[in-house]
Amino acid sequence: MTPEQTRALDDRVLAIEQALSADDLPATSSLIADAPTHEVVAVIERLDARRRAVVYRLLPKQRALEVFEDLPASLQGDLVDALQDSEVAAVFADLDPDDRVRLLDELPASVAPRLLRGLPVDERTLTAAVLGYPQDSIGRRMSPEYVTLRPSVRVSDALARVRSRVRDAETVYTIPVIDDARTVVGVISLRDLLGGADDDTVGALMSEPHTATATDDAEDAARLCADLGVLALPVVDSEGRLVGILTIDDAVRILEQEESEDAARQGGAEPLRRPYLSTPILRIVRSRVVWLFVLAVGATLTVQVLSVFEDTLAQLTVLALFVPLLIGTGGNTGNQAATTVTRALALSEVRTRDVWRVLSREVRVGALLGLLLGVLGFAITSVVFDLQVGLVIGLTLLSICTVSASVGGVMPLLARAIRVDPAVFSNPFITTFVDATGLVIYFLIARAVLQI
Question: Could you tell me the domains of the chain?
């Protein structure tokens, strides 16, 4: 949003909060009546649970459904707790099957069966099919509502079929083409259908299909959809039969969630999975405290290293002045490498089998960075202190940068190899590891150069 739009939204939120505080429901209703759906969503995301439910109930039925569909699944779950059963049942029945599954994942186990029982039989069957796939698979995020065509169908008949299903399908802009065994043999766009002659067959106009398997990781399938630049990606079972479709908007949503998760873990916290202002304080604390304990325990390695080299520090106290500089530089170098490689993994630019190539590149990158920083550190330290201390700092920067970049580049690949989120192995753990090893390198070089 532009600064002007942000200010307008902030003013609207403030006005709504003031109206709610004064229990002025007519004023609140008028404030949200003319607001675009995305603004109403933004307003609801910034309110507490009670006010969120009040604002939602003031929306007309159709508008309420639009807003509900655009809310994060976590806030949808909060609203389910606040609304009456009849209100929840009406909204739940109007959701698409994949959106229902996202909501069910956020609800207590005791609530989900009750909501499912209230669905019509056909909708319950579609939803249950999506629920049957593993939690992080694309099958869990696909839509089972789609239009299919056969290769032998004429364009005129195909368009008639699309028109008859346009309100029920998730999308009609990309249509899978299947054979008698429901195997995907091609895809055809609505544009190609409209541009074809009435007597042309679908098979003559269709293109080669790209598909994802229902058990594939959701992020991998979403990345494939985005990389191909397609509006929808057919999802098939292990035998190649069509079971669903992934639309580009759902793919983008998956990628945004994964980016948020990686960013949080690289910063040493768990993802909130909901807007910051609507997240309870205790949940924010829980998302951070475990990591802080882990990193605090890891930091004891640094303390142990300092205690081992206590005599070296006592003989030349000037060495202590450079400890923050050196471990900070090492941590930053490792984090840069880890962030770059983690991103390359997410984009499928590197694989775990590329570990030696990545290590080779990062050794050279780290050595060049260390050489540049080392020469600068040597020059400045030699002038301020003496030549020997400058040599220690220069050699240490060269060594630490080389080691840090190498470790930072390889750790995400090792994490992927053992099926751990690479972001977990990134900044926090690398910083802790490099702090300890960097100090060992520093004091060993100091002992060798200064003969202490």
Answer: 3-136 (1.25.60.10), 155-264 (3.10.580.10), 282-450 (1.10.357.20)
Is the pLDDT score of 303 beyond 70?
Answer: no
Query: β-strands 232-236, 212-213: how paired?
Result: parallel
> Which residue from 242, 251, 250 is spatially nearest to 146, judged by alpha carbons?
242
Return d(Cα 43, Cα 31) in angstroms, integer: 11
**pLDDT-based confidence at 186, cuts 50/70/90?**
very high
Query: What residues pair up with 425 in beta bridges, in sequence order?
Result: none
Concatenated DSSP letters for 212-276? Answer: EETTSBHHHHHHHHHHHT-SEEEEE-TTSBEEEEEEHHHHHHHHHHHHHHHHHHHTTS---SS-G
Asked if 206 and 186 touch (Cβ cutoff 8 Å), the reply is: yes
Average pLDDT of the residues of the chain:
82
C-alpha–C-alpha distance, residues 55 and 187, integer Å:
43
Decide: helix, strand or coil at residue 277: helix
Residues 6+ apart with CB under 8 A from 199: 154, 155, 156
The more confident residue out of 424 and 354 is 354
Q: Among 110-119, 137-146, 155-164, which is the least confidently predicted range?
A: 110-119
